[in-house]
């Protein structure tokens, strides 16, 4: 969760709005890390039942991706979205939540192809990319951030 935050500029001190798709193990860590870095955090889930968990971990905004009204409220909020979902879904569902020049990073592994609407990418100069685990320096930075802010995984 830390390396894409680092790579896409979330560790440089500039305020951002970061979306986290999936409020599970990875997603809750993403919420905590993003909040510790000083950002506004948008938790995104298919289930309204995850709102309490997301806000308890630090989410400022909660979007239900299966609710058109909720998606409309989240339209254009996010500079960066980390997609942790490893179940079958369409990533293009979430591109409207990105601002102009926004980036969505695929972290959850899905074997089946996604359908991507190119018009939404082109008009908003949006980027869709993937990320990998960072190296030793990124790991050390992440561990220091966690130590400084008392961030631990939920077990």
Structure commentary:
By secondary structure, the chain is an alpha/beta fold. It has a single domain, classed as Rossmann fold, CATH 3.40.50. Strands 3-2-1-4-5-6 form a six-stranded parallel sheet, with helices on both faces. The model has no long low-confidence stretch (mean pLDDT 94). 37% of the residues are buried. It is 34% helix and 22% strand. The longest helix is centred in the last third of the chain and has 14 residues, at 136-149. It is built from six helices and six strands.
Helix content: 25-40%
Q: Shape, please?
A: globular
Give the strand line-up of the largest sheet: 3-2-1-4-5-6
The total domain count is 1
CATH topology: Rossmann fold
**Overall average residue pLDDT:** 94
In total, the number of strands is 6
Main pleated sheet:
6 strands, parallel
Concise structural overview:
Helix content is 34%, strand content 22%. It contains six helices and six strands.
Topology (SSEs and partners):
Elements: H1 2-7, E1 17-21, H2 25-36, E2 40-45, H3 51-57, E3 61-64, H4 68-74, E4 78-83, E5 98-106, H5 118-123, E6 127-130, H6 136-149
Parallel strand pairs: 1-2, 1-4, 2-3, 4-5, 5-6
